[in-house]
Amino acid sequence: MKIATWNVNSIRSRQAHLTNWLQANPVDVICLQETKVIDSDFPRSPFEELGYHLDISGQKSYNGVAIFSKIPLQNVSVGFTSILGNKVEEFDEQKRAIAGIFEDILILNLYVPNGSEVGSEKYAYKLQWLKVLREYLEVALKTTPHICICGDFNIALESRDIYRQTKDTDIMASPQERQSLQAILDLGFIDAFRKFTPDAGHYTWWDYRRGGFPQNRGWRIDHFYLTENLSDRAQSCIIDKEPRTWEKPSDHTPVILEL
DNA sequence: ATGGCATCTAACAGATGA
Length: 259
Description:
Elements: E1 2-7, H1 15-24, E2 29-33, H2 45-48, E3 53-57, E4 65-69, E5 74-78, H3 81-84, E6 97-102, E7 105-111, H4 121-143, E8 147-152, H5 175-185, E9 189-191, H6 192-196, E10 205-206, E11 218-219, E12 222-227, H7 228-233, E13 236-239, H8 242-245, E14 255-258
Parallel strand pairs: 1-2, 7-8
Antiparallel strand pairs: 1-14, 2-4, 3-4, 5-6, 6-7, 8-12, 9-12, 10-11, 13-14
Helix pairs in contact: 4-5
This protein binds one DNA strand through loops.
């Protein structure tokens, strides 16, 4: 089976790109981020016509996540309160997390906060959000052996994931962000892409500005993290750069995991 | 240090993203 993740940067602006891509890549599941639309305005029919069942959680203008699957997901939940309760309610205001079970796998689709600038309020929110995510996974792991987390993490863990040297004050590469993500991985998650590809120069996001893509000035910030038992089942994990070459693309490109 | 580019709302400029 194949699972994909793609930050589409507005589902309404990217509808044709996504339908074209899905026709060429009929994955079993696709996890989307930054849909940027309330649920009642989500363009469902083009994707339902391709045979997908849709689970969506969006809001006006910002954020928003969705999972499309060829077979309906079981036990779909939105946000963190479903597992952690009302104490984490404030972290569910922004629509950044949706989960469901496909076959024996819990798929958790995430749009991690960007953080704006190191030291800002949004940066503090990003770190807190990651702490809540860690708690969520700690609980989930107690009952669910097979977990696949994917999405836009807005963090590049290592220098080989970024086209240039970074400073500690660079958002998406700061030590605190990396430690927060590493603490999650330390619960027992493996970077699926790195199981197959150790070398530098593979990215999933390129800045629209300054000709980032043509010069391959990118960052690898979209990830698949798998529990060890699932990692053993992984057959491949690849980045498909092609949609980034299309006209008016998302600034992110899809990553595809094969189990 | 700035701005570069794209998306949103809907104010056609300002907020946000990464």
